[in-house]
Amino acid sequence: MVMKAEDWDDVETIKHEIMKQLKNLTSEDFQGYLEQLKQRWNKFYNQKKMPEKVMLSSNVFDDSDFVTVQNKSKRKKKTDVSSKRRKLNAPTAEELNELREAETLFQSNLLKMEIEELMKELKEHMPEKEKINLWLQSFKDFLRNIPDTSPVSIEDLILENDVKIPIIQVPKNTKGNFKFVPPSNIKDIGSFALGTMCSSEPVIDVAVEIPKTCWSGMDFLNHRYHRKRALYLAYIASSLLENDLISDLQYSYQNENYLKPVLLVIPKDFKNVKVCLTAYPSTNYFKLSRFVPSKNNVRSSWYFENSEDVDHSALESSATPHYNASALSDILLPDLNDYLKEKLHTQTLKDGIILLKLWCIQRGLCDGFGRLNGFILSMFVAYLLKKQKITPLMSAYQVFRSALLGFQNENWYEQGITLCDEAASADLQKELDLETFKTHYKVVFVDASGYFNMCYYVTKQTFLMVQHEAKLGLKILAKESPESFSLLFMNKITVNRKYEYLLHLKGPKKFKKYLQKLLSKDILQKEKLDFGENIMASLFPKVCDVLKKGLNNRISLIDVIKPSRTPWSVTDSPPNPNQGQVSLGFLLNPEVSFNNIEKGPVADDPKSKEFRDFWGERSELRRFQDGTIREAVYWPAATAAERRKVFSCIVTDILTRHIKADQSHIVVNGSEVDCILEVPDMILSSDFPPYGTGEEAHMVVMQSFNALCKQLRNLNGLPLLIASIQGVSPSFRFSEVFPPLSVIHENDPKTTYVDGHVLKLHEGGVGVPPYTPALEAIITLEGSGKWPDDVEALKRIKAEFHMEIAKLVTSQFSLMAIPFITHTDIFKDGFVFRVEVACHKEIFLLKQVKMADGTLKIQENQQSRNLEILTEILPKLNSILHGLHQQHNTFGTACRLAKRWISAQLKHGLMHDTAIELLVASLYIHPEPYSCPCSPQVAFIRFLNLLVTYDWATAPLIINLNNELKKEDIEEIYSTFTSQRSTLPPMVIATPYDKRGSMWTKNRPVALILKRIAILAEASLKTLDSILNKSLISDIKAIFRPPLESYDVIIHLKRSEVPRLRCAVDVYTSDKLPVYEPYKQDRNELYPVVEYDPVQMYFEELRENFGEFAFFLHDMYGGDFIAVVWKRSAFIPKEFKVSAVNYRTLYTDGIRLIPDVERILEDMQILGSGIVKKIVKQTENWQIP
């Protein structure tokens, strides 16, 4: 619908109307509307006075550009917008139909526009058809004019220009002669010819037909067909090498099959364009019946030559289905291509295939060993068309969605699917039915001829992963979110963010030994006949089967990851198909993945013997709580951290037991970053419970807190009953980086002394006591109308409650309690719980403002807002996040890893801890495009990725806690964000309790810090990827050590004065740390020094005293230095003023002032006396103007 921008009188009206109408704007009218809008804007700019701050962009979707216009004249009073509303033409019936069609065919107008823009962008990457067709014609003419050669033995053929034959010739001896004759036909095939190309680097497929005169009657046997085909391509490469049409020639493997090389031709005049030249035999030369799956076309007498350890009579009848299919894929190539051209005749079908390809490419489902390809995806759309699951009238979106439904519902590995209506030959009906195909192949998709399984090389693991991704894709579409398009087509899925655990197998030379261990001699020989030198294709499906059997329901999916081989020069020998790193990715079942016991059958079950044979001496009989006696395998694990390592132990045990893999050749990645949450063993006494990574310590805190809550509710003597007690500290939601320990607090005479039962600090003490945090909780009392109407009086009543609670807790439960005006500290089980009485009325009273005329006005202020967050919002949020951890028991640990990384990068305090927890929560509540994380490490990696990739300038992060936000609420959040973006903070996190999204990010992080955090996260991700993607053991703590070169001054602290030194990234044996004893109730127990951290106090004093000159950065978890960055603006010479003399000195001109760096540093040293070890000036980073 074309909309006129008439009668718009001010900027705010224009902006409001743009955003209001975007949803109903069709793509056809978009450009015209935009031009009209620009003209109206220019007219408005010339006629009206601009406001001081205007959001202006050439693209109406981009609200990140802010232009400030200084207006020297006075602003005129804004005209009444409501009196001059813009006039809209009534939509025509045709326009209304277009809107309805967009909703029906594309789910939404926005999605329709995004898909159309995508198609337009993809077409821009395509080479100009006229130019490329001219080049192709010249290329084809050259191929047709290559001179014939006389016959020569295959074994004796040597090519000119040092061109190598792109096939591994094992065995070497091959009967037959090779004669080159120019191709009898040259066909344009593949996605370029079909119009379904989906790549920024186009690959144009061209197939040459090898004439009949090049073949002999028995070439289907013993790799002769494949070797002649490779020789044919090699001869063409030799002829092309010095041709002016090309800039380079390379070989590559088709579908990672070493018997199927292709020639990659890089044209001279086209950037990023490749021509993939393949070859197929002359039509009808080979009988299709020779290649049915049950036939043998590789003779054992030829392949094993003179080996005496082979029973040739038994192997002669052994089927070679994969070898046969590899030949059929060429023989049927022109027919298959013609079939697709006939069926896929509408543009919407082609666009749907492009979307499907892009979806697969972004998920790594079309690259590497055993993967799908564009041809199979196109054939599947043709299959759905044949089965009437889609129609040519459908939109591209509907075709794509139907394909996902098809993947989800069609079972290619158990039933199989086919395009063939009936067997081509009655004699071969049994050999060509789906049951026969299923016995020979893992995944079955038969072509229209009925002879060829188009998925002959696709692994079962790949198809299961396709089904898994299809289910996730349908869930994304069902949510109808504005991010659906980017989640499906723009976000690249990487293995480190997708899989909870990755197994890397070193040493491809060992693969043959592994296969010999897995298979008997007879079966191994049959596999060799079928797969030849491609040991991977035979080995890894069987390794997956063994791992699946051992891991049982611990995993939901397993995947083999081996990227496609890089093309090689035509003058180089072909690479071994088994070389390169092979990895296996595991998606875990969250319910049982970390169990440290594997239950087997009951003792008298016949299957128990199979279980014992599989696990060997590890299997033992155990009695369980339900009374059954079962075979079981047990892995010792006392903590959650150890249970996460059990998975690696199981995988290692299975591989060493069943394929005799050396442990040094097995690397399982999945819990490496856990080490950053560990504490040194030397601080815990021998009888202290295992700490692990702190999950058990959190449980102890919760148990103690629940017991205290029960005691507080049972208090007798309070004027009002306690209605609820809700914790607000991170420990109560399992997200405290280093939770407090239940320990005995002892007196150190050098640091503290005892006053009654309370430890107090010596004035001139040496060292610091261990840091003891206060665990905060909010007490809500039953309702009462007797609370005073004065804020100060109400605070005094609360103070009386705190004193009374302390008194009653001491008298009734013998707990030490110290009352304060604002709270009461209670000592229990070695912890200090800080309880505060909350009264809702206090928030209301704080909002009251007395006007000049004596009336009261309700106005929100910072004090009331802070109290509301502490006493009302935070308890609710704590409860929800606690529940999220109960649902996903890795959530808390993932939050701790994220907060530890932020602090280690010296950004603690520059981003609110609660904001970090909400970011991590979003990964569990809205995990798309991944499944929900089942390990802390993968959640942490996704957290870093979120920091790097999320576009905070253009979209809020909406976290739908408890699904409380409805569709209308989400639309309102987006609308508010768009209309008020200039007034919102750089990071907007919207929740049901904060729809504006600024509660936790209003003042921090600022835009500069947010950008810096994203840069650090990107660097950490690269380091993690380099470590986790390789079968090497590296120091994972490198991502938690910040680079110090960019800082101007480093204040080094005495490690003995750092109270949280046990939490440091690096703890040394020379560090003097206290040894903790587990808590035991004692009459003489001591109340500890609470929340005493001199380093943090010094850090805050630096910010307070010198904040106008520098930024101060510190790792609060055991950091032994403070980094200083001078503010460049502070070093600009200023006019002399008495008020500005402090910490400044005269500039060289003797008139203006600049900061006195030496004096500032000297005072920093004095201020940190006893804490500061030395101050290092890195003057190469800065200089005084």
From TrEMBL:
Pfam families reported in the protein's UniProt record: Nrap (PF03813), Nrap_D2 (PF17403), Nrap_D3 (PF17404), Nrap_D4 (PF17405), Nrap_D5 (PF17406), Nrap_D6 (PF17407)
GO molecular function: RNA binding
Keywords carried by this UniProt record: Chromosome, Nucleus, RNA-binding
GO CC terms: chromosome; CURI complex; small-subunit processome; UTP-C complex
Claim: Nucleus is one of the keywords in the record: yes
GO biological process: rRNA processing; tRNA export from nucleus
Keyword Chloroplast found: no
Principal location class: nucleus
Location of this chain's protein in the cell: Chromosome; Nucleus, Nucleolus
Domain Nrap protein intervals: 204-342, 349-492, 498-660, 692-886, 888-1042, 1044-1175
Lineage top rank: taxon: Eukaryota
SUPFAM superfamilies tied to this protein: PAP/OAS1 substrate-binding domain
Secretion signal span: none
Family classification: Belongs to the NRAP family.
Assembly: Part of the small subunit (SSU) processome, composed of more than 70 proteins and the RNA chaperone small nucleolar RNA (snoRNA) U3.
Function, as annotated: Part of the small subunit (SSU) processome, first precursor of the small eukaryotic ribosomal subunit. During the assembly of the SSU processome in the nucleolus, many ribosome biogenesis factors, an RNA chaperone and ribosomal proteins associate with the nascent pre-rRNA and work in concert to generate RNA folding, modifications, rearrangements and cleavage as well as targeted degradation of pre-ribosomal RNA by the RNA exosome.
UniProt name for this protein: Nucleolar protein 6
Gene name linked to the record: nol6
